[in-house]
Design a protein that fits this description.
It contains three helices and two strands. The protein is an alpha+beta fold. Strands 1-2 form a two-stranded antiparallel ribbon.
Length: 85
């Protein structure tokens, strides 16, 4: 099975919800992960979530029915940023 990756971008002043800023499989997924690591962007490994998010069109906001999953990402980000402080 090929590796998949989805990148989200969120600007609370401009958007109601995070947007899918990149997605890909195989070499494209590897590149997304590499760029995230190079820029110290947190990475959450969750195959089910990636599967769901990969269905969202590029540069579109995550739909409301996925907000619970996105809340889990925000919780993950909050926890790792609190441990670095």
């Amino acid at each position: 099975m090929k590796k998949k990756a989805v990148a989200l971008k969120y600007n609370k002043e401009k958007n109601q919800a995070p947007r899918v800023s990149a997605k890909g499989k195989g070499p494209s997924a590897q590149k997304i992960i590499q760029i995230a690591k190079e820029n110290s962007v947190p990475i959450k490994k969750d195959e089910d979530l990636v599967e769901l998010l990969s269905k969202v069109e590029l540069d579109k906001e995550v739909p409301p029915q996925m907000y619970k999953a996105i809340a889990e990402i925000f919780s993950f980000l909050y926890k790792i940023t609190q441990t670095k402080s």
